[in-house]
Amino acid sequence: MKFxxxxxxxxxxxKKVFIEDISKIRNENPAKFxxxxxGNLYCPECHSPKLSHHxxxxxPDYFAKYKKQDHKEGCIFSYNEASQTIxxxxxxxxxxxRLANRLKNFLISLHTPDKIQPHPLVYTKTNSKNIKKSTNQxxxxxxxxxxxxxxxxxNKLSPEDIKETxxxxxxxxxxxxxxxxxxxxxxxxxxxxxxxxLFMSSNVYSYIDNKFKSDMKCSVAFFGKLTKSQKDGKIYYxxxxxxxxxxxxxxxx
Length: 253
Hints:
Blueprint: E1 5-10, E2 13-18, H1 19-28, H2 30-37, E3 41-42, E4 51-54, E5 62-65, E6 80-81, H3 84-91, H4 96-110, E7 122-133, E8 136-147, E9 150-152, E10 166-178, E11 182-188, E12 194-201, H5 202-206, E13 216-224, E14 227-231, E15 234-241, E16 247-250
Parallel strand pairs: 6-8, 9-10, 12-15
Antiparallel strand pairs: 1-2, 1-3, 4-5, 7-8, 10-11, 10-13, 11-12, 13-16, 14-15
Helix pairs in contact: 1-2
C-alpha cells in the first residue's frame, strides 16, 4: 500500500507531514533526510508501522510501511479499499450533508495529529447472515469496514489517477473564473504550477462559502472522477462538481 501522508515523530516534534514535503527535503537537504527523517515516519492513522520514503522517476513519490510491521487493529489501512460500487453509492448519497461532512472532517484530520472518530473515510457495511451452531440457528450481523480511495493532487497527477472515482485533496492555490454559464475553478500548487480544473454551474457556485470565492491559498477536497484532455501539447485534468457537497474547503496559514 502507498501513502501520501505520514506522522513525523522526532526530538519532541510530532506532526503530520506530506509526501511532497519529504521529497523536497530529500532533494535539497540529503543530510537532514538521513539524520532526521529516516526511521521517524509512521502510519498517519494508527502511528504504528514505520514508513519509508520511495523516490520515483516518471511517477509520484510515495511512503510505504516497513516489511513485517503491521497496522494496529482498527486502523483504516488495515481495511480493504472500497469498490467503485460503494464509492458511487457514497457520492450519490441522498444525505448530501453527510457527504459534505466526510470531506470537511477529512480536511481537518489532515491538519491535526489528533484522530477524528469515526474516521471520515471509512465506510461500514453491515450484513445480516444466518449462522448455525449445533442445532441452534442465530442471526449475526457481520460488520465490514472499507476505506475510500483518495489521491493527494499536489503529489503529481498521472493517467493512473483518472481511472476511478475517488477523493482528491491537497493544500493548493485556487483561482475562479466565470465562463458563459458556469464557473471554472483552476487549482495550482503553491508554486503556481497547474494541477487541474473544476467546473460547476452557477447554482452550485452559489452554495460555496463566500470566504472561499476569492483567489487564495487553502486546503481543498473534492469527490468525483477526473477526465483528461489535451490542447496544444499540454495535458489538462478536469472534473465536474455537480453538487456543493462534493467539494469542501478549509482555511490554512
